[in-house]
Amino acid sequence: MILGGWIIEYGILVCSALLIFSLIMIKRSKNKRIASERIICILVTIMYITILLNTTLFPIPVDPLLISDRLKEGLIERNNFVPLKTIYEISKGSSLSTVLTQLGGNLLLLSPLGCLLPVIFKVMRSLKLIFVLGLSTSLIIEIIQFLISYRIGISYRSFDIDDIILNSIGTTIGYGFYKYLYPIFRAELFGINTKRLSR
Description:
Number of strands: 0
Largest sheet: none
Distance between the termini: 47 Å
């Protein structure tokens, strides 16, 4: 079994190094409030990405005996290439908690990207670009899961087209948070005029 804890450990180390560098840059910056805002968002984004990778790709079963046991017990994920099939099945035959966990979880999974990246990069302040980013990121994750499953000979994570749909929508939800709610938090936390978000 390959665990992903090392990703979080490296993420913490990178964030620590960036934090020291950031404090130096903030001290030298003319506009300390905007510099602080972007640096905080960069650090949060790095930690988010490490958690995202750890959540979506790990643990990976590589022990032949473990894989054999999973096959015998029928613990195999089923791939879905039919749009809305999984969403329909979960919505129709599952409890409310399952619906919220499965569908809500996939909606929220990439939503931080839609909120954080527009703060860091001005070029990302477009709903269209954010949607394409969410779609591309989700597709890459699903393809990696599929390739790892193919390589180890067992579907440890399923490729699901509905995950891509929900993740993409979730990214636009994150952008909506950036566009309409973040300015309120921004003014409170950093004392920055909300009109600068559109620049």
